[in-house]
Amino acid sequence: MLPSASSLLAIVSTLMVLTQAVKFDLPAALSDRTDTTQRCLSQFVAKDTQVLITVNTGEGYNQRIDLEVSQDGPVPNVYTRKRDLQHSFANAFDTISEGLVTMCFTNTLDEGFVESSLYSRWVEVDMNIGAEAMDYKLLAKSEKLDPLELELRKLEKVVQEIVEEMNYLKTREALMRDTNESTNERVKWFSIGSILTLVCLGFWQIAYLRHYFRRKRLID
């Protein structure tokens, strides 16, 4: 059952409020120890969805920040590899499959320097997915939309994505229900088979013991 228009607007408003960048300090390490200080952020993204990643970095003497954006799945995909991020970087791509899109940052300290807590750079990451990743300025310019029409187009796109997500969840729920019903059916027949096997084994034991005792003349 689809929600009402007021419910959809409430969800849209909540999503727009919760959308914000993530900022953190990334300590520097020598090249042979960068894996120990690697910082990764992940977000589940559906297939054929536009993603826009914007990264801002602070100043850092003798430090190099590298970025890799990948997605897990049957065949892992690497969308971006950026070496030595400077100040700001933006990258947009469309996902090839569904799964976790992971952004991993490493801060490498130049050779000849000693690791210290003083060596770190701040990183600010903003990940926009679907409707949030669209270039609405370009859309407004190309279609000559006024501000109100542009806001309505934004809401239309977000509501459309919410409905698609609900349909996707409905499909997953149906698949899960079918899997549960199939599993229950298999467990039922396995239980029946186990009971019949135990009953047959019990009758065979009784018949064997009766034959054994008669042979030993313990019973008539």
UniProtKB/TrEMBL annotation:
Note the coiled coil stretches, chain numbering.
145-172
Specify the protein's topology with respect to the membrane: Single-pass type I membrane protein
Q: GOLD domain spans which residues?
A: 38-129
Tell me where it resides: Membrane
- State whether keyword Transmembrane helix applies: yes
What are the transmembrane regions? 189-209
What's a GO cellular component annotated to this UniProt protein? Answer: membrane
Q: What is this protein called?
A: GOLD domain-containing protein
Which gene is transcribed and translated to give this protein? ABSGL_08972.1 scaffold 10666
